[in-house]
Structure formats: structure tokens, C-alpha cells
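Journal club prep, notes for RB
We'll compare a predicted complex against what the paper describes. Inputs for the zinc ion case:
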Amino acid sequence: MISPRIHPSILNADFANLASELTRISSADAVHVDVMDNHFVPNLTIGLPVVKSLRAATELPMDIHLMIEDPDTWAPQYAELGCESVTFHAEAAQAPIRLARELRAQGTRSAMAVKPATGIEPYLDMLGELDMLLLMTVEPGFGGQSFLDLILPKIRRARRAVDDLGGTVALQVDGGISTETIQRAAEAGADTFVAGSAVYSADDAASAIAELRRLAS
Ligand code: DX5
Ligand code: ZN
């Protein structure tokens, strides 16, 4: 299994000062960027032009989480910007296998997300097309929500499926990850942890990252 990775989400950062907000998390494993279109989710954030500027402003790998409709059209454009990982939602993709292959062909890690009420079973046969599977542990759209414990069995099922494949697919959780909840998610089998408010509401983001990493280990 992959050693625990912490990906702070800039959704909870100060959007007027994104460059300096990135320097606060330089000890993270990647920066998680939530792209929302106000259609797939009831919230609107940033798109390609801002992500392009962020890419130029940081050395951190970029983990793009697309909460948008029509990822088949848009996801490759994020890959083209040099983002290391691009996650599309299973519920929004027209042709998830084709899209995952297209992302990999562009040299980007292909990743797919599922909302809390979406089962993983229909997607298990395509796990080998992915570099990461994201299990949402809140309804996507907003930071600061409570971790849904009812996702823990799905994390365990996904862990077994990933291990059966040889364990190279990262298993990410996103939503409500904090010092209170990260151990439960890690014990269930997650290895990659998005943390928004837990990192950005801390006075010392670096020690919040270190503490989360320690608890997940
Ligand atoms: C929610 C986003 C998350 C969010 C997590 O839809 O996908 O990445 O920023 O924020 P917290 O960690 O506060 O739940
Ligand atoms: Zn996210």
C-alpha cells in the first residue's frame, strides 16, 4: 500500500491570495484544486485560466478535482496545462474508459470520483484504467461538511478491489477529513487524503499536514 499522502484543498484558502496560500502548504504531497461549474454541483469556483496561473505559481503536483458536467470535453484541457492528476466524476462522464485513456496518453494520472450515493461495483472492471479512485466522503460542492461514516464500507470494498489488482491505484477520500476522522478512513484503506478546512483553518498549516500524515500512518 502507498504511504499516506495529504492533499490540502484550496477551496478553503483565501482566494484573493492564492499564491501565498500555496506557500503555506509546501510540505503537502500535492495541492487539491476543486473546479465547480454550478451545474454538476450547486457552487462555482475556478476554471482553466486560474488553474493555468496556479500551475505557474507552484512546484507542488496539482490534483485537479473536476465537479463539472461534460468532463469528456474539459478534462483533457487540464491535462494539457501540465496538471499531474485530473479527476472526473463517474456520474458526469459520457465515456469514462475513453476519457481515462486519453488522460494517460497525455501523460497525466487518470482519476475518477464517485459521489456518496454512487456504487463502485459498476466501475470495478475499469479500475485498471485509473491511477486513482476518489470516494467522496461528503456530498460534493462545499468545504467544511461532516465526514460521512456510511462511506467506510465502500472504502473497504474499494481497498480489496485495488489490492486484487496489485495495489497501484491510489484510493483517495475527500470531505470532512480531519484529525478526528482521518484514522477511520485510513484504517478502512484510503491512502490519499484531501483536507480543506482541517489544513487551511489551522494557524500552522505545515503542522496540521504533519499531524494528519502521522495519524494516517
Ligand atoms: C468538496 C470538495 C472538497 C472540499 C473539502 O466538494 O471536493 O475538496 O474542499 O473540504 P473539507 O476538507 O473542509 O471537507
Ligand atoms: Zn475535492
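Talking point for the session: The radius of gyration is 16 Å.
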